[in-house]
Amino acid sequence: xxxxxxxxxxWKKLAVPIxxxxxxxxxxxxFFTVSAGSVAVKLRFGKIVGAYGxxxxxxxxFVDKVEKxxxxxxxxxxxxxxxxxxxxxxxxxxxxxxxxxxxxxxSIYRNLGPQYxxxxxxxxxxxxxxAVIAKYSADSLISxxxxxARELDQxxxxxxxxxxxxxxxxxxTNFEFSPQFLKxxxxxxxxxxxxxxxxxxxxxxxxxxxxxxxxAEAEAKSLRLQREVVSDELIxxxxxxxxxxxxxxxxxxxxxxxxxxxxxxxxxx
Length: 269
Hints:
By secondary structure, this protein is α+β, with helices and mostly antiparallel strands. It has helices at 11-28, 105-111, 116-133, 138-141, 145-162, 179-229, 232-249, and strands spanning 31-34, 38-44, 47-52, 55-58, 64-70, 74-83, 89-100, 165-177. α3 (116-133) crosses α5 (145-162). It is a single-pass membrane protein.
């Protein structure tokens, strides 16, 4: 039977690369970088120990934790529902631009947390959207979209400023209404168009009647003026014109007798 010689392992030889690897990992974990447009907070056992801007920074490996935030303008889209003044359900889609200031990062992390968009901004948007939409009737929301967005913008800017979040602007990108409401709006528009056509027809008939009245009044005035112009001189002129026409028609023969006891008419030179 063959004797098996046990393999001897030199722990010293293994310890050297292990230690070197740990040191190498430690060195790499002793630094962190913050890119442009970002800030970071450093936590040590859950406690904030510092806030950092862009660049290379040191930390205690395996002890310190780094949370990074963007300070660039972020655009988030929120969908929510609200009731209008006339109790119609209105669906809205809002686009909101917001950001945080670098010098408020510690307060943001301590009071709002890294997910402040979901935990603070979204509930604030939903709450005040319902409050503003309730001031308007459903059919006036579309025509007053800019005014509604402006009012929401002012409110959320003030409310989020208290939370140290800067809201740049808000836009309402979409309104959604129930099918029943849309059908009612369509029927109302058709009725308004028919009423407008009827009104236009009445106005047309009215104008035609007014034109006829004006024409009749003008003709009556003309006749009245003609009657006023008739005078004795005009009557004599018409008699002379009648005699001239009679002379033009005379054939040159004198009448041979006259009726009754009157004398014959004799022309003398």
